[in-house]
Amino acid sequence: MTLKRNAGELPRAWHREMPRLPALTALRAFEAAARHESFSRAATELFVTHGAVSHQVRALEEELGQALFARHGKRVSLTPAGRLYAERVRDALMQIADATRALQAGSRDKRLTISTMPSFAARWLTPRIGSFIEQHPELEVELMSSNTLVDFTRDEVDVALRMGSGDYPGLYVERLLDDVFFPVCSPNFQGGKLPRRPEDMQGLPLLRGEGDPWRPWFEAAGLDWPEPRRGLMFEDSSLLLQAAAEGQGIALIRSSLAYNDLLSGRVVRLFDVSIPCPWLLYFCCLPAMLPTPKVQAFRDWLLPEIDAFRRILAQWA
């Protein structure tokens, strides 16, 4: 009579007690040392000290009861037993690595990683992303904020939302949003005595953003003023806006970032002069990732949100 095993029941051999195995850290140290035939190079690869590798290998030899390396002063070489053991350990470790990658590949399908600038993440994406998460509870969404451009070949990022030129070779690039710059400040700046004309800003503290010069706006406003060289300089536009809202000076800011603070009254716009932002907002991903369900789901949610926001921003142009 043949006994049938219930679905999900482990094979009978799996119920046996697993024999005692050497520590994984010792096996990894031994495999690296065997591959390089050098404790020093193994230590560099594993980001540990030479002494740590030597200690792990020595402990493994004592547990096995035989030498794996022959020592020749500072040089080492594999013994015949060590060479055979290294081959089998390497095969076993590669099987573990392959199994781990296969498992992670399955979980990656359910994780959506989005990269964008800190300012855009804080002021636009974070307040809205909740509705996407509610629509797609099957996805684990990870939001990464950085001013550094993503390297899609190295970083585990699915989508990037970036302000820039759009010249990103090898990527799928979709233009999302134009923008404009204009000055804003706190309604309580200078005790509420706000400048009425652009020339009234003479001598007032002008907050500076890295890569966002005042000079083009001065020219649009008919002012022959040099670029400000003094005052606070901010790398992050969100912090620049925060400083303006706290009454520390006047900031030249993008309408897409200032929108919520303008509506709440934390800042007010000065004058009717604006200039186009030289950088546009783009949706970027690897071409192979575009048709994947998770990227398509995010794009399908994002585009209507951007369209609605674009219509709102038209009043600030």
Automatic annotation (TrEMBL):
Q: What keywords is this UniProt entry annotated with? A: DNA-binding, Transcription, Transcription regulation
- Which SUPFAM superfamilies does its entry note? Periplasmic binding protein-like II, Winged helix' DNA-binding domain
Q: One GO molecular-function annotation for this sequence?
A: DNA-binding transcription factor activity
Highest rank taxon of the organism? Bacteria
The UniProt record lists the HTH lysR-type domain at: 22-79
> Does the keyword section mention Transcription regulation?
yes
Entry's InterPro entries? LysR-type_TF_proteobact-type, LysR_HTH_N, LysR_subst-bd, WH-like_DNA-bd_sf, WH_DNA-bd_sf
Which Gene3D superfamilies does this entry report, sorted A to Z? Periplasmic binding protein-like II, Winged helix-like DNA-binding domain superfamily/Winged helix DNA-binding domain
Q: Cross-referenced CDD domains, in alphabetical order? A: PBP2_GcdR_TrpI_HvrB_AmpR_like
The keyword DNA-binding appears for this protein: yes
Q: Which PROSITE patterns match?
A: HTH_LYSR
Q: Which Pfam families match?
A: HTH_1 (PF00126), LysR_substrate (PF03466)
Query: What's an example GO BP annotation here?
Result: DNA-templated transcription
- Record family assignment: Belongs to the LysR transcriptional regulatory family.
Protein name in the entry:
LysR family glycine cleavage system transcriptional activator
